[in-house]
Amino acid sequence: MKKVLALFFAAGILFTQPVLAQEATEAAATEQVASTDTNAAASDTAAAATEEAAPAVEEEAGFTQMLKEKFIEGDPLWMAPVLLTMIFGLAIAIERVLYLTLSNQNNDKLLKGIEDALKSGGKSAAMEYCRNVRGPVASIFYQGLDKMEEGIEIVDKAVVSLGSVETGKLERGVSWLSLFIALAPMLGFLGTVVGMIQAFDAIEAAGDISPTLVAGGIKVALLTTVFGLIAAMILQIFYNLIIAMIDNLVNKMEDASITFLDIIAAHLKK
Length: 270
What we know:
Layout: H1 2-73, H2 76-103, H3 107-120, H4 122-131, H5 136-146, H6 152-170, H7 174-206, H8 211-268
Helix pairs in contact: 2-7, 2-8, 3-4, 3-8, 4-5, 5-6, 5-8, 6-8, 7-8
């Protein structure tokens, strides 16, 4: 009986070893195929991402290269002045935007601080508080506090006079920006006229009307006009933004000045 069992056990071992070996081989092959598929999928994903990123880079590089080519084709002699007007205009616009942003402050907090300083320390404390606050409104109130002992009418005149000065500071450089807005398209139109003259000169010299002869002059004419108009439109947007910011600051300044005069009048009655 034991021999029979031993024979069955040996036969089972001999039978199962090939099956297990085959299963192990199939599992290894499956893992290899899966690994190959995963690597292929990763490679395809990376390739797809590269292909998607490549057109964006090429598009950006192509747009920049196109601008350079059109700038050169438009004749740098006429395109350079248009570019300079745009650069100078943008420099003024950015400087004004930063200045006006820093000039904007919380007038309610300033008025509250002046009122508290007048109650606690009088004129000198209020002037010291205004001296430590940045902005045109604080400068106006400082001048008004300095004239406080001369009466409310003198304070009013001082506030109005210094308010006009501070408004002029806010508007500084805006006239130059408007000049560049008008100058950029005018320079572009000048390049247009010169380009058309060159085209007619080429026709006169050749004695024949040919598209090849006039194409160069017309291209210069159109490109200078386009770049001039683009520069003017960009600067016009900044100009309108700056004017809106100045109007907002002036309105806040006037409202705060009325409240400031009320505070001074109430303090003088005590």
